[in-house]
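Hi V.,

You were right to ask for the full record rather than a summary. Here it is.
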Amino acid sequence: MRESQRQDSEETQTKQGKQIEIVTCPDCDTQSIIRDESHGERHCHECGLVVSENEIDHGPEWRAFNPSDQESKSRVGSPTRKSMHDKGLTTTIDWKNKDTFGRILSPKKRSQMLRLRKWQQRIRTKDSNERNLQFALSEIDRMASALGLSQQIRETASVIYRTALRNDLIRGRSIEGVTSASLYAACRQNSIPRSLSEISQVARVNRKEIGRTYRYVSSHIGLELEPVDPKKYVPRFCSRLEVSNRVEQQANEIIDETAEAGLLSGRSPTGFAAAAIYSAALLCNEKKTQREVANVSNVTEVTIRNRYQEQIATLQSF
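Predicted structure:
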């Protein structure tokens, strides 16, 4: 009878997409149930009734008394990664020619391990699709390393490329173009200011193809990215120009005032930010030439000059 009451008192509710087990004490009708992992039982905090016992311990079978001991006994592998074609689930033969005890292998064993390592690299990809995916993800990793991007950006770019591959958007386009477009989309998703020109400098395709592929991929998989804010480029450009914080603040104010007037529509955010920095440097008596600003922002001097004239005319009209 008591067992049936206990089972009836346990119910599962759904809250914010998660299942939460609500256990009610059959004697005092309270929900103050405490789980005692050391004794493998659950008891009521109010009346002391043991609600359940002999529960399964889902923890490790070993004990650790300090963090180093716990780390040495832990046998958990690395998490899966989308930036690897096999998600990091396959075995990798180490390049060190040592056994488990740290002893150097004999020449015969080293030759055998070299042959096994070579074959292991060959059989990791079973067909041409996996080989192409492996090449594409290595391209993303190479470009991200050259641009100094974090692991999060690489994972996001890998997910975007896998989505494009699953939707058959790679057909008729180069792998380099789609990987570059995926990396650019990942930067925009994570609010990392990287322009098409910067991506094209480390990619094996030109800027025009990256932009065309990015528009095609984003429209078919529904990325719905917001326009890039020019103010995100200002700190990096000002750091390269070695100007003061006063110039950076003045450039942000110029961008805000001219953007409210509708001047930003249809303009490149990098050129708009470079012109604002050039204007702010003149106003703060830290003059920088248009060529210097153009070199750090990867835009032409003509673009800076045109945007500068438009911004000054807009500010004077206020």
